[in-house]
Specification:
globular; five-stranded mixed barrel; single chain
Length: 220
């Protein structure tokens, strides 16, 4: 599962790593929550990569209410191709959800302890995602993060993790013309990023709290 994350990389890093630029600097955020607008990379109308701010919680095009999106923040890699809420977007509307790390909680004698999980080399993460348009008139564009079985030491914290894609897979994932067999291969390939994690303050539990202190290590 991925229900809370952070993204604070500078605009220059986003342009260099993902091939997109933003008209306005991206605001550093350390406690991104569902139903907020989040930065994603996708293929635009001119078949070039673009940076977009999408509502986190995918609202299927057939949904009667926007509120359905609050239950669609994640999509399981194992079933995403068949689930009615995701299968249309999976075929043609894929994106990269940008993060510098994400949070998971592990039970302890003192209650659930939050941990911040990041790339061991400190580089931003590209989480496989889907996006969708909903509504007529004022259209809402929304997204979801694809998850997979947790690997390595991260499995100590939670049995699921975001499907993180290496740079070598970005173009294939973003291309609307990529065949379903190739998409299955992308999601089924071994995760190629080394992750590290450390305990952080329980202040991250509240969506009202923000700031770099939320990712600072504390004693476990």
């Amino acid at each position: 599962m991925c229900g809370r994350y952070a993204f604070y990389s500078p605009q220059e890093a986003v342009a260099r790593l993902f091939g997109v630029t933003s008209a306005a600097p991206l605001e550093p955020r350390y406690n991104i929550c569902p139903t907020q607008f989040v930065p994603v990379v996708r293929t635009g109308a001119a078949r070039v990569r673009e940076l977009a701010m999408l509502y986190w919680g995918l609202v299927p095009f057939w949904a009667k209410e926007k509120s359905l999106g609050a239950r669609m923040i994640n999509a399981r890699a194992e079933t995403v191709a068949a689930k009615p809420a995701f299968r249309a977007a999976y075929r043609k509307r894929r994106c990269l959800v940008l993060a510098d790390g994400y949070y998971e909680w592990r039970p302890s004698a003192q209650g659930k302890q939050p941990y911040f999980i990041r790339a061991a080399d400190g580089q931003p993460l590209a989480m496989a995602g889907l996006w969708e348009s909903w509504g007529t008139g004022e259209v809402l564009e929304s997204c979801t993060i694809i998850t997979t079985a947790a690997l390595g030491s991260v499995a100590e914290l939670h049995d699921r993790m975001p499907r993180i894609l290496p740079a070598t897979r970005h173009s294939e994932w973003l291309d609307p013309a990529t065949e379903l067999e190739s998409l299955e291969a992308v999601l089924g390939a071994p995760v190629e990023v080394d992750l590290a994690f450390h305990p952080v303050s329980k202040r991250v539990n509240s969506p009202r709290n923000e700031g770099p202190e939320l990712i600072a290590p504390i004693r476990d």
